[in-house]
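Lab notebook, bench 4. Still working through the backlog of constructs that have no structural model yet. Next entry is a single chain of 298 residues. Request: give me the structure tokens for it.
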Amino acid sequence: MPFDPPVPPARPVPLRPGRKLGPIAANVGSAHRAWLEPMRDTYLRSGLTLSELSGRVRFAKSKLSELLRGTGLYPRWEIILSLCIELNIPQWPLYRLWQQAAVEAHKSREWIERSSEKAPLTTPHTAPLDHSAFRELVENDYHLYAQVFLDDDQRDSAVSDTFDILWLCWNDALASCDTRRFAWQVLHATVMSRTPHLDGRPAFATAAFDTVILQSLTNTSARLNQLEESLELFKAMSRLPDHQLDVMVLRRLCGFSPEGASALLGIPAAAVRSNERHAVHFLESVICPLPETEGNTS
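Model written out:
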């Protein structure tokens, strides 16, 4: 059976009087959601009511509720900074994510700069040492994965945002059953939020142009044939469950060994091999047999 990682026990959520905070609005963009979700999670674990938080940051309760649900006008940095300070959230990664979401919300550069000037950051811009060490260890490999789904600019942004989001919830990552698995789930969600989807599944046919086998072919006819096969393969791969898709991307498109994929995903090498076998069985049931691939990436 495919490996399903154990789910860590949920933290008890403090009981609050009054109406429960509603969910994030469905129309909230991926950049906005990237900073809003960690902020909401921190608030929900704080034990504060909206009324209490409203009094501390001197912001109307109704407006605070809108902010935490992603409704209403895009918030200025002043109120976000006051929430950072009150909820003890790292300011610098949240500021970078807030900036990107402001651009997504069609805010002008002047609007962003004015808001930032009125509320300068008050904490150091350096991430925790263990976070920085983890980033140095996996960042290049994260880029290889993201490149399969995104163009260069989107790839760089997705990976950078992944580490900012991880910084915001680094304590949760350290407290999880496996920091590598926690981080991979953040990367996967961030990349998929930027990847075009068709019928609910990721569309990544452009990756066909970057496969090693295609780049190694000089004959035009051979390249066209390989491109057609790659497009068919990627279309079928998009139908795989997420954990199998990630294994196949790392193994067959990025050239990772089972042990290398295991270290990156935070799952046993046996689970990597099992997921790959199930994925290959499915793919061979809908297209021609796949070539064997043994990567050297560790």
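Notes after review: Residues 129-149 form the longest helix (21 residues). The chain has a mean pLDDT of 86. Flag for follow-up if needed.
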